[in-house]
Amino acid sequence: MLQTKPNLSRPDETYARLIKAHEGLSEAQSHAMNARLILILMNHIGDHAVIDEALDLARNTAVKA
Question: How many whole angstroms separate alpha carbon 47 and alpha carbon 54?
Answer without folding.
Answer: 11
